[in-house]
Amino acid sequence: MRQDETPKPVSSESGTSKVFKFPMHTGREPIDLAEWPVVTLAHAPIRGRVVIENVLGADADGNGIPQGWELALRDAALGAPIAGDQDVYVAIMALLHETDFRQRVLRITRADLCRVLEWQPSDKKYLRIQQSLSRFRNVTYKGTNIFKDRTTRERFGYIEFGFVDSFAFSDRPPKRAKGADQPELPLSYLRLADEFLILCRHAHLKLIDLDFYRSLSRPETRWLFRFLDKNLYKRNEYRIGLSKLRRKQGLPSTLDPKYIKRDHQPRLEELKTKGFLREFRFEKGSDRDDPWQLWVAKDPAFALRRGARKLSGMEPTEDTKPTPEKRSATNSALLESGSISPAAELVRYFHQKFPGAAGSIGSKSEIAKATELLARCEGDVVKAKHCVDWTRTGAERTNFGIQHFSALLLNGYPERALAALAAEQTRAVEVRKRQDEDDMKDAYNTWLRQEVARRDGALDSAEHERMIAEALVELRAGRTGLTFSKIPEEMQRRIAESKMRRKLGRELPSFDEWAASRGPGVSISPAA
Predict the structure, then answer these.
(1) Residue 159 burial by Cβ neighbours in a 10 Å radius (0-12, 13-18, 19+)
(2) Domain-by-domain residue ranges, the chain?
(3) Do the beta carbons of residue 135 and residue 79 sit within 8 Å?
(4) Average pLDDT, the chain
(5) Could you write out the DSSP letters of every residue in 300-324?
(6) Closest CA to 182 of 191, 174, 170, 192
(7) pLDDT above 90 coverage of the chain, percent
(8) Is residue 347 within 8 Å of 363, Cβ to Cβ?
(9) From start to end of 47-188, where are the E strands?
(10) Class of domain 219-316
(11) Of 86, 189, 384, 512, which one has the fewest beta carbons inside 10 Å?
(12) Residue 448 in 3-state DSSP?
């Protein structure tokens, strides 16, 4: 048996220990680490320094207060933490939250980190965890006017700290001779940097909703949830420039806004579908350097859920586990037999989403109502569950109390829920269609440049010079010919070469002709 497969207490250097209980539902992190990147959202390690600069208001003399964040690397070949490493960071913060940030050495295994994230332990997951920890150990975070002391409310002018100090994992349980001393460090452990723990004890802490975090499909969406959750705390709306958002992700801000919008559209759609956001849109702003902005509004139902917790960074005010299901002769037989009908499954799902509601799985009246809801959903259990989710959100928004399954069928909830689902699916199709069109146009432009370059290269030197001379004559005889004749000859030749290439491109198929020739269902690649 591997050591990773046996649960162990987590020990601090002072000898105290704490046994972790799984599953975990909440964690905490310094609130500013949800704003400034602990990881970059790159999919391959960035090999150089990552520097982000900002201006934080003005001081008493009217001078801008500089704000900066840097990820400095010890080994450039290893690179900075990537998007997927965020999961390991969140798991560690959940474990530290359980220790109240008092234990520097966590006596944990890779399997423990998998349990926090609800991953199935495997060699592939273990390797991913080790690589993530290596990258975290490779980086030093440097912040200027980033963090505030939660007691004095003073900003740390400059702070430098690491995250992971050292770690080790063993595939076998420890063996000690009888009477031998306990080793100074366990065979599997994770040791955090002192400065990081001190920062956690003094900084403002933000709650991490692990249940919602784990439900999201992509690392980029999970990062966006942490970032927006921080910025929508105590406010209903938030707006940020797209270039600034890219910088906060540790990525270059020079990307064309249309691609930033394309990348973020599905992430925002998922956050909206799962009830975190009520609405979002991309707007034209007044900042010349950052002309496009993202505007988001949080969903009140999600805010109500968070209202059941204490202030940011504190424990939940009550256990978030659903109320135990009421037992009866009927539902006990169903549960023990293991064969549950779609209607009974739907009733069970209802009680998971509405803890404390009356009724039980075996109630004939509730199963009859569930059967009716399934009939309205054409027998589709997924659609019926969507109706339950949508009704829960709608009921919370209007303060309508749902106490029985039959209430799901009131107020036109099923029809409205199915209409909302159809609209979401239509929007998703339209978004995907626009993305495909953009990708197709990018592929066409790449193909066109390559084909023109190929034809240009196939010309002999005499024909090449003849076509440039012909272009020069046309440019000098044109409406702006007098101005053109006054610019340097080198610049004239470059403009003529560009005109010549456009002329070569006129002989090639237009975008519509090129797209039609590819036929439906052809994959798109830039080199097409």
Answers:
(1) middle
(2) 3-215, 219-316, 339-411, 422-518
(3) yes
(4) 81
(5) HHHHHHHHTB-STTS-BSS--SPPP
(6) 174
(7) 38
(8) yes
(9) 50-58, 64-73, 105-106, 139-144, 158-161, 164-168
(10) alpha beta
(11) 512
(12) helix
Place of tokens 């956001």: 277
- What radius of gyration do the chain's Cα atoms show? 30
Distance CA 512, CA 250 (A): 38
The answer to whether the pTM exceeds 0.90 is no
In this structure, are residues 106 and 131 in contact, taking their beta carbons and an 8 Å threshold?
no
Closest among 232, 247, 261 to 289, alpha carbons compared: 247
List pLDDT tens digits, range 102-133.
999 999 999 999 999 999 999 999 999 999 99
Q: State both tokens at 58.
A: 């003005």
Q: What are the two backbone dihedrals, phi and then psi, of residue 277, each rounded to the nearest 5 degrees?
A: -105, 140
Q: How many Cβ atoms sit within 10 Å of the Cβ of residue 486?
A: 8
Instruction: Name the β-bridge partners of 241.
Output: 293
Q: How far apart are CA 528 and CA 522, in angstroms?
A: 10
Residues 116, 94: contact at Cβ < 8 Å? yes
Preceding omega of 23 cis (within 30 degrees of 0): yes
Residues in a beta bridge with 238: 296
Q: Describe the strand order of the beta sheet including 50-58 as a list of residue ranges.
A: 50-58, 64-73, 139-144, 158-161
Q: Which helix (H) or strand (E) holds 494?
A: helix 489-506
Tokens standing for 77? 């070949």
Which residues, at least 6 apart from 88, have a Cβ–Cβ distance to it below 8 Å? 113, 128, 129, 132, 133, 136
Measured distance CA(195)–CA(101) in Å, rounded: 12
